[in-house]
Amino acid sequence: MYLGIDVGGTNIDGVILEAGKLLKTEKLPIGNDLLEAINTCLENLLTDIKPNKITRINLSTTISTNAIVEKQTPPVGLILQTGPGIAHDFSAISEQIEYISGYVDHRGKLIMELNQDEVIASLKSLKTNKFENLAVVTKFSTRNLMAEEKIYNLAKADFSNISLGHEISGKLNFPRRVNSAVLNSAVMQIFSDFAKQIVKGLGTKNIDAPINILKADGGTMTLEQGVDKPVETILSGPAASFMGIMALLENEEDAILMDIGGTTTDIFFVVDKNPLFEPLGAEIDGHKTLVRALYVHSVGLGGDSAIILENDQLKIGPRRLGKPMAMGGDYPTPTDAMIHLGKLDVGNKEQAQVAMNQLATELNCSSKEIAEQILENFADRLKVEVDQSLEIINNKPLYTVREVLEDKKLEPQEIRLIGGPAAILSKYVEQSFELKTIYPQDFSVANAIGAALAIPSFETNLIADTGRDILSVPELSIYEQISRRYDLTDAKKLVIEELEKSGYEAEIVEEESFNMVDGFRENQNIRIKAQIKPGLEYSLVKEQS
């Protein structure tokens, strides 16, 4: 049996699946005590089910994303070894930056030694200023990690959470690597505390099974890996949404995928049966990273978005100012409109009518008319946001997990919805977009289903230089000496064997080998990108009516 749990900002959803069937579902508000919510969710799911029947636990969470976006992360000190080249401004991501001398070139060759006295002085300054979290990034550290390792050994006794640039990604992009390392340290303690609560909650139910966490690319990694590299879990929640839609609905047409929540709507795109990916990495709160991620456009528009009148026009969102009025809140919301129209049977119907009457009086129409107008405007707003995304997407190459589709234009043929209001809003979305709009039977817990069924994903970047007799695969922490006879075949064999230790099929995405002449010696420079691509253990499409 697989257990899937999605920890959102408002609700926690859980599912149990076995042999291609959805056995149990659970949805409840988190409130102020996450551990209590986890325990309650587990208790309800495990009624009549023996804990030892659970063989895998997959989680998705918005905890890292929310901490960054809401600026609830602790400060991170930054030590940089930039070497020569373009100077970048990193002041927006760190309150104190210590620049040190020394550098290696793009092949990893040491050009100028690290100055240990400078490093010690920098660490002392950061400690004096009460920094507990640290990021260390040297340019081209994926080609030569020695400087970062030396700094780590000098810093580890005095800092709680340390992130090293070469451990973040094997890709080359210094500014994105810096952002990624700082964000990793910023959310490390927050994610670690979350992981402890999860483990504690599962332990009280005597569940002893592997625990995985969803990453931004829709694949999973172990919870222990998540604690070490929590930056990979940014956009974990939206990734679960995407995987849930893929698990529950047929994937034959180029499509728009949407998860309509209480506060936001996440929008994704599928082309040639593959998701669109960010070409370089995720961007969060203006910070560009190297985190491999699905392309997602998040809109401040949800069932609980506050509605105000602005110049006699309805304005829905982008803020959520508390609960709907039918639930005791102070502002009208689309949820109030749904309740008033009899499309949603929750809350206080009289208060929903009060909410609609407030707006109707101002606009000189009936409460029913204003409720319909709200839902129509909701769908129209989504149409505007999707059109803007499509314009951007179609003006540059399309990136999927497997390849760049340079000559492809994305022209969606249908819309797939999940989220609490999916069934209610599907009619309005279809009318606004003039596209077939569908939603699955289990749309309200699709995130937890997507999390439960996601398989591990991984990307590696191998660099081998027979002129310097070195090989590196940063993502696998492989740094080896090689002979001058080492070739492309050897390199491909290495990465495939290492990746397939996970039990899943690996593939080569990119490969190249070119000659370099150093003095009188001809050497090989070998570069390989390989992956276990994100996917599902199986789909539940046949379960849908």
Rg estimate, integer Å: 25 Å
Helices, by number, come to 13
Helix content: 25-40%
CATH class of one domain: Alpha Beta
Strand content: 25-35%
Main beta-sheet strand count, sense and barrel state: 6 strands, mixed
Mean pLDDT: 90
CATH architecture of one domain: 2-Layer Sandwich
Categorize the overall geometry. globular
Q: Structural class, judged by helices and strands?
A: alpha/beta
State the low-pLDDT regions, or none.
none
Main-sheet strand order equals: 3-2-1-4-11-12
Query: Could you name the CATH topology of one domain?
Result: Nucleotidyltransferase, domain 5
**At the fourth CATH level, what is the homologous superfamily of one domain?**
ATPase, nucleotide binding domain
Beta strand count: 29
Straight-line N-to-C gap: 23 Å
Written overview of the protein:
The chain has 545 residues and is of the alpha/beta class. Among the domains are: 76-189, Rossmann fold (3-Layer(aba) Sandwich), CATH 3.40.50; 252-438, ATPase, nucleotide binding domain (Nucleotidyltransferase, domain 5), CATH 3.30.420.40; 458-532, no CATH class. Helix content is 32%, strand content 26%. The chain has 13 helices and 29 strands. The strands form eight sheets. Strands 3-2-1-4-11-12 form a six-stranded mixed sheet, sandwiched between helices. Strands 13, 14, 15, 18, 23 and 24 form a six-stranded mixed sheet that branches. Strand 21 and strand 22 form a beta hairpin. Helix 2 (63-69) crosses helix 5 (174-204) and helix 9 packs across helix 10 (367-393). The longest helix has 31 residues, at 174-204. The two termini are 23 Å apart.
